[in-house]
Each structure stands twice: as structure tokens, then as C-alpha cells.
Amino acid sequence: MEKKQRSGFILFCIMPTLVIFSIFVVYPVSMVFYKSLFQSSGFGGNEIFVGFENFIYLFSDKTFLISLKNTGFLMLVVPVISLTLALIFASVLSFGQLREKAVYRTIFFFPSILSFVVIGILWSFIYHPNMGIVNDLLTFMGLEEFTMTWLGERSTVLWAIALVLVWQSTGYYMVMYLAGMDGVPKELYEAASIDGANSFVQFTKITIPMLWEIIRVTIIFSINGVLNISFVIVTVMTAGGPNNASEVALTYMYEQAFNNANFGYAMAIAVVVFSFSIILALISNRLTERDIQ
Amino acid sequence: MKKNKTFNMRKLVIRILLLIATVIFVYPILWNVIASFKTNEEVLESPWSLPAVPQFDNFVRAFTEASMGEYILNSFFVTALSMFFLLLLVIPTAHAISRFDFRGRKLLHNFYMAGLFIQPVYIMVPLFLLMNNLHMLDNRLWLSLVYAASALPFSIYLLAGFMKSIPKEYEQAASIDGCGYFLTLVKIIVPLARPGILTVIIFNFFTFWNEYALALVLMTTDEKKTIPIGLANLMEVQRFATDWGALFAGLVLVLIPTITLYALTQKKLTEGMSMGGLKG
User: Fold this and answer.
1) Contact with chain B for residue A259, Cβ under 8 A
2) Where is the secretion signal located (chain B) (predicted)?
3) Distance from CA of B182 to the nearest CA of A (A)
4) How far apart are the two ends of chain A, measured CA to CA in Å?
5) Chain segment A263-286, per-residue pLDDT in tens
């Protein structure tokens, strides 16, 4: 009786949640894989099984290849820069013995709670050729010949977007690292200090190894995060332009689905991007594997 | 003595670098607030100048012409409803996972943890088709349920982690007092887990309030759209018909709830990061 009541209660706790999660998350995920094997244009009905044809076609689709390359670029550049900056800021705040540490933590974390749409709009104006601050600053410093339409040039647009993603995420990872650094025993640094190790040596020989597991997690988080935020930022700031130069895989997926009604093809793109990010995560996991002892 | 001096020198350099970083982090927001009080001509003139006369009219136009009021109401409604659904779904599951040992517990937990890798953007296309088939498109209620579902993995991760740290003795005492399972959850565990629940609410408030991709594909009527969609549309329109003032005022309006909540909870938030974000 008691036992029955217990199982009943557990089921009561987990079932509704599991059902909702299955309908609105698990089922769509499985659909992505399943429907990527079909050519389906429009709603319901006319679906033709095409096997891997969508995927074969994808790899001769020039726009897709550009968008995949751009996504890859952002997935490499953004985590490297923002995690490095986050580590530097965190260790400066953690060991600088500044009274205003908490203030900086609050300020640097702030961009990561802002709406991506707001960030995209604000930075469009920062890069604006006439009224943006970037060109204004360059003019002010007498570097007028370097002013340009940052979001309108093929050569600068991706870096401009990468910078926005770095701005958005650095503080978030900094706070994670700060939390980790608070857990590192202070005696380690004292001992190293007595042995004559300077702060750079302490940073590379103590801080980084002690935070290694957190760093590994944040690499995967940030690779994954780039996918999500780049979709919104690119949609708002450039719509993939100029001439697809800033198209990312998920904005291309969106266009294929909602502008061209190529649903099967769009899901094939999602499958490729998903696999791509999993592979990147695995590679990073492999490369960063290390014996802590 | 000399050592002390180089030490202070170093602190000064650090402070200067941190101040520069602060300017970079804060400037866009500050500029936004200032620009929301400027006329169009002033916005075009220089990114540094202050408005000659503060244009409160920008905010009026944001409400009257750009219907920001409606979007904000929609966003509040969707955020609140999503939160209600989410808590209803996450508390029992986190409770079962963290306080009971049953067959499949580990599997269930790992199942949700795998869900951490599924970003809403990946599933926006099949979700659109599903909601279309179920006639659930363009409905704030269903949008909220979808939001709650997509927030589950992270919330279960946070809350189950927190609930594990509550000592077992509380339940034993409750069961001696003749409290059933359900009453134990409602009367004992929920009050004790309040800090964890609060962290879940804070993190997800920002997620729900800011969500863009799903709202973009699941909502079609203009009157039902949430504020991120409204702003993105307004930005699109502004490329042609220039009313920068109203756009910037709109941006400030979205920022107000975000900044208020952040000011009230930032300590909790940054602590929550170490509570959930790390023990992967």
C-alpha cells in the first residue's frame, strides 16, 4: 500500500512534465532528423521521400557553404576571444584586491541579460556610417581614411558581428570564472609567491590548471551559444547581407523554411548545423582532456 | 618602500584598463538612453551631444504610433504565464529527481540534461509545423507553454541541484507527523527550496522576456506579438521612415524591466551562476 502510494506520487510528479517536454521539445527534435529526408514544400500532404538528397544538394549549395563557413568562423573566433578576455578580467578582479570588484562584476555581467534584439539594434547604430560612434572616434583621432560602412563591406561585416557577440558574452563567462577562482585555495598562491613565481607564472601554473574543468565547460557553452545569438544578431543587423557575406547557417535555414517553404531542406540544414556543433564540442573536449594529477 | 610603489603603479594600470572596459560595456546603453530624448536631427548630428530640450514626445509616439504599449503588455502576459507553467512543471519533477530513488531516475535526469544542448532555434521549423497542425499558432497561451517546455532542462538542472542540498530529516519529521507525500512537497520542500525557485524565476524571466526566435515564427497577428518582435519590426520600418526617437524610446522601455530586475537581483544572479553553471 505504502509502496503503491509512493510510486503513484512519483508518477504524478514526473509524468505531466515529461509529456509536455516530449510534445514540444523531443518530438520536434526527432522531426528535424526525420523530415530532413523528405522533400516537403508547403503544408502537409505533398511530401516525397528523397533519402539523403537534401544533404547531397546542400554541399553544392554555394550560399549554404558560405553560411556554414561564416558560422564556423564565429564559433572559433568568438569563444577564443571572449573566453580569453573573461579569464583575464576574472583573474584581474580576483587577485587585484580592488575594493570595487563587485561593481565591475555587476557591470560586465550586464550585457548577457539584455535582449539580443536590443543588442543588435544598438550595435547597428554604433557601426552606423554617419551617426555611429566607431567612425566618429576614428575621425576624432585623425584616422578619417579608415572610416567605413562596417556592416556594408564584405571584409568587415563578420568581424563586426563577432565583436558584438564577444561584447555580449564576456561578462557571463567572467562571472563563471570568478566563482571558480574563489574556490582555489589561497595557500597555493602564497607558496608560489614565496618560491618567487611572478603573477604571470602563477596565472599559467595555478589559475588555469585549477579552473581547467570550468574552462572546458565554458568552451562548449560558448560554441553552442554562438549559434543561438548569431541567428538573432544577424537577422536584426544585416539580414545576411551584403550579398550573403554575413549569412549564418541558421538564418539560411530560416529563409529556406519561411521564405521558400522548403521545410525538408531547412531541416537538413538544422541537422548539419547540429552535427557540426556536436563535432566541434567533441573535438574541443578531446583537445582539452588533461590529467589533473 | 619601493616595492609598495610598483604595486600601486600596477593597481593604477589595472584600474585604467578596467575603466576603459567599463566604458565599452556601458556606453551603448547610456547612448541609447540619451538618444531616446533627442530629436532626429540631434541623433544624426553627433553620438556625443546631449539633447537641447529633452523630447519626452518620443516616448509618447512609441506608445501611440509604434504600439509599444500593446507589445509590452503581451510580453508581460507571456512572461508571467510561462513562469506559471514552468514552476508547475519543474517543481514536482525536480522534487522527484532529487528526493526519491526510483528506477529510471538517473535516466530521466540525463534525458533532461541532454536537452541542455537543444537550442530553441534548432527546432523552430518543426515546432512551427507542429503548432500549425494542432491549430495552436498565434496564441499567447500556447506560446507560453512552449517557452516553459524549452526552459525545462536548465531549470530542472538548477532546482534539482538545489533541492538535493536540503537535509533528509525534514521529510522524515513530516512523515512522522502524518504528512502525505503531496503535503510534504507543498508544505515542507517548496518553502525550503525558495532560494532555488527564486533563482529559476530570475534566470527565466530574462529568457522569456527577451525570447525572439520562437515568437517570430509562432505569432502572426501584430496585436499579439511580444516586444522583441515589435522592436525588430520597428527597426525594419525605421530604415525607410526615419523616426529614430520613437525607436530609441521603445528600446528604453524594454530595458526598464530588465534593468530593474537586474538591480534588485544581481547578487542572487551571479551567485546562481556558481550554483548551477559550474558543476556540469
Assistant:
1) no
2) none
3) 7
4) 51
5) 999 999 999 999 988 898 889 888
